[in-house]
Amino acid sequence: NNRFLLSDFLLLFFLLHNGFSVVSPSFSGVLGFLDFYTFKSVKELSCSEPLGMKSGHIQDFQITASSVFRTLNMDMFAWEPRKARLDKQGKVNAWTSGHNDQSQWLQIDLLIPTKITGIITQGAKDFGHVQFVGSYKLAYSNDGEHWKIYQDEKQKKDKVFQGNFDNDTHRKNVIEPPIYARHLRILPWSWYGRITLRSELLGCAAED
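Request: output the structure for the sequence above.
Response:
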């Protein structure tokens, strides 16, 4: 029979009072409250919300890029940065760079300092041709002029994030520790076909 001790109750009270939430039971323990429940910080749970690429809360003017590809050199088939929105539909439904090299970037201006805790990327098809970014780096800035590359803390070098392997599957990466910045750049590092991105950022206001 499962039962709680007074110490279990006091531990639960302490955790809830200090901003932790019971997420789910892991298995049926007899004693040992920590064996019975999994905990996560309420702040951790609340600071992983979509920041607005898919919803449109991030407006077109906030999204810029190093270059733009035009299918058949036609403006009506311009793969502009404003189209780099997760799950965007249509014949031209993503950002594609005008050049395939490691100097390309997609930039998002969040307008205010923001805590960025994750990123979701997605590829697309250009008239049936599968295109996606297979890996990328991240750069961040508060003034849009001076940039830092996000570092792998253990290896003390630029972190390369795993990207997509097809044109449609979501690929989510957690950014830990988080980035605190107004501007974020996605720097494609490897790709299939052409450099092509749809994306969403996850996080919350920096003061949270």
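The first helix runs from residue 6 to 17.
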